[in-house]
Design brief:
- Helix content is 30%, strand content 31%.
- The protein is α/β, with parallel strands linked by helices.
- The strands form 2 sheets. It has a 5-stranded mixed β-sheet, with helices on both faces. Strands 3-7 form a two-stranded antiparallel sheet.
- The mean pLDDT is 92.
């Protein structure tokens, strides 16, 4: 069923890059949560920069592309639009299906998927509509800076190391796709 949805989304928003990533032993295991997938909101602001956020419990300076879980029975596109409204309150258009990232961990046979989309801001006021998200700040960066964001996330130390390694993948992939398109 997911394959059919990816085919429909590809026909509508362009063929994504397919990436498989093996996370190292001890890295953050996204499958420890009940979700098996997420959407990534690569929001291109009106000024041409990519929107990043941070949360009140992240390490200082840990900004990243917003993501949100896909609920059981929810389509990828419905999750994308719901999460965009909850996290940013912005009116957007889906410009491009950028990537499907499949993560594997040594501890699990099941895969975790990230579906990344480029969204163009049309209007609205940037704010968080869901206080449970705990978003505490925003930053805008040029797409060319996403590789550096990936490096900063991958370089997090201590208890945040595994999460940073996991989160760095999306930023590296999106940087690659956007630089290839420009």
């Amino acid at each position: 069923m997911m394959k059919d949805e990816i085919t429909r989304l590809s026909a509508r928003y362009g063929k994504p890059l397919f990436v498989t990533e093996s996370l190292p032993t001890g890295a953050f295991d996204p499958l420890k949560s009940p979700r098996t997938g997420e959407v990534a909101l690569v929001v291109l602001r009106k000024g041409g920069k990519v929107l990043l956020n941070t949360k009140d419990f992240y390490p200082d300076g840990a900004f990243r592309i917003p993501t949100g879980g896909i609920k059981p029975g929810e389509s990828v596109e419905a999750a994308l639009l719901r999460e965009t409204r909850e996290e940013t309150n912005l009116d957007v258009e889906v410009a491009r299906f950028l990537a499907v990232i499949t993560y594997h961990t040594p501890e699990r046979r099941k895969a975790f998927m990230t579906y990344a989309f480029l969204l163009r801001e049309l209007g609205g006021e940037l704010k968080t509509n869901d206080p449970d998200e705990r978003i505490s700040g925003w930053r805008e960066v040029d797409a060319s800076e996403l590789k550096g964001v990936a490096e900063r996330l991958a370089g997090l130390a201590g208890e945040w190391w595994g999460w940073g390694v996991f989160r760095s993948v999306l930023h590296r992939v999106v940087a690659s796709v956007l630089s290839a398109e420009s």
